[in-house]
Amino acid sequence: MVERLLANEVRLQGRSVVSLKDWSPTEIKQVLMTAKWMKANPKVAEIQYALKGKSVAMIFELPSTRTRVSFQVAIQSLGAAPVILDWQDSQLGRGEPIEDTARVLSRYVEALVVRARNHQMVQTLQKWATIPVFNALTDAAHPFQVLADALTIWEHVGYLSGAKLAYVGDGNNMANSYMIIGAKLGMHVRVACPVEWSPAADVVAYAQQEAEMTGGSIQVMTDPEQAVFGAEAVATDVFVSMGNEDSDAKRSQLAPYQVNAQLMAKAKPTAIFLHCLPAHRGEEVTEEVLEGRQSVVFDEAENRLHVQKSVLYHTLSEF
Ligand code: CP
Questions:
Q1: Whether residue 292 sits in one domain with residue 214
Q2: pTM for the whole structure
Q3: Domain total of the chain
Q4: Transmembrane stretches, by residue range (predicted)?
């Protein structure tokens, strides 16, 4: 089984994941295929020891439950050691330049997992590091989350190319990342946001151009019902992202974008509901939808572990 997996794979050693813009459709599909295989085969010895003797540093500027734990478990389950740095307790919290941190940590560990407020910070880290850098969420992108979401759609909808995904709410890092991965995988992605909270125009333009090459499509609109009509997967995220929690004006502008039973009824009857969590029940999604039969949010959370194992394996192992 392992031989078959490796025989088909694309060579990804040494690659970073800062944005999925840098990854080709074939590379993303390979990561998803391996993740699916690893999920079904968690105890294969070649996988359990694939990163034996290696270390991966994890640095979080912002809070995390899923990303922190799933990366730590993924690293350990491949035989490597996670080294967890608290931002404030490291010299980064006292202003040590990111360029110096990147070069120093590159001498100790084999990869860096970083969650930062500012996307540019992770780009700078990648520029100066001599090891792979993995974006664990920035203001612009959440690539591992949408890899997990793609695996979840594949599992529940049955296919990715041609699948219809609606994202409703804030045009944030999740909206950006859904458009990018959707375009790469030939999906039809509709994003519904108020004009003031639309996703970045350059990301929309990039994704639309990519979608032309894969047979997918990317549409941004203001009407949530239009976005959700006929969708096979409906996704949302918190209305106000980490660090901006006191923005009540934004919450009221986004209130009509709540995913509730009425909105889900516009999607296909078999549609799934996705949320990267944590969710604010009664705000961007109702309790009824989050806990309802269409919700796959805990499969989605589990799949973080499998896609991260897959990326760590492909980028860091020496098979
Ligand atoms: N979805 C997600 O990234 O969760 P955490 O913030 O808990 O890591």
A1: yes
A2: 0.96
A3: 2
A4: none
